[in-house]
Prior knowledge:
Layout: H1 4-16, E1 22-26, H2 30-33, H3 36-41, E2 46-48, H4 53-64, E3 69-75, H5 76-82, H6 84-92, E4 99-103, H7 121-126, E5 132-134, H8 139-151, E6 156-159, E7 181-184, E8 189-193, H9 197-209, E9 215-219, E10 222-224, H10 228-235, E11 240-248, H11 253-261, E12 269-275, H12 285-291, H13 296-308
Parallel strand pairs: 1-2, 1-3, 3-4, 4-6, 5-6, 8-9, 8-11, 11-12
Antiparallel strand pairs: 5-10, 7-9
Helix pairs in contact: 1-8, 4-6, 9-13
Amino acid sequence: MKAQRQVWGETLAEMAAIDDRILVLDGDLATSTRADIVADASPGSFIQVGIAEQNMVGMAAGLTTMGYRPWLSSFGVFLTHRALDQVRMLVSQTGAPIRLAAAYSGLLNGASGKTHQDLFDLSIMRAMPNMTVLAPADEVEAEAVIRWAADHDGPVYLRLARDPVKRVFPSDYRFIPKLPVLVSDGKDLVVVSTGVQTSRVCEALEIVRGQGLEPRHLHLPMLKPLDEGALVAAVGSTPLVVTVEDHTVIGGLGGLVSEVLSGVAGCPRIVRVGLADGWSESAPNDFLLDKYGLSPERVAESILASLKA
């Protein structure tokens, strides 16, 4: 298994070696985000900005006027909170081709605690006009969406996890923008997930299948824009949809699925599994996943409880 941050660094280094438009701007976290891979391989494609995320966004906006296609490297929380005004004014409003590589996103970020955990980023970035929002499931999909994002002509927010997860997709996986991905088929209910939580949901559904049930599993690697008709078709006529995300249940994946399906005749019951309205804490990964209901076992419990209800 390979961590998404490692994949990001290696893929950017490879692309920067052949495309001098690609620049990586780092907020003094290169060894954590693995932007140091780019710095070592292509020093001319790397700019160390320091702990100055707002300035980093402004620099990137200026660089786009000179034909560059910059990637911003920092923890997700610093890009979506500390530099939010600059992202709003200089990236979203202008539509500049700036890629926000948000490392250490979600609950599991090396036990840094609630100051560094970003559990609201999808809500914030989904609300930003012109913003494409990506949350790959594993190392294979991470590389695919990074390569796609490098050629995209508008702003991109890319959610990257710190730690590796079990692979979801084969090596020949092909990313198709806007579409939900059918991970596994079934008829009893639909489970929708995004980001690396999809890997844990795959494990949870093995438990659910052990109870004689046949869940359908959909993964959304691109939360915005989304082909809403494709999501409606993929959900079909199932009476129950369960969304699972390493994120607050307010405005993220669960909010997105609820928004789309609420406009459909015969809207299914929707259960949102994720973090409640509150702050998280610093602790080992397994403890956090279990406490906040995101471990495979706890997700399976939530799905089975939803079926009984």
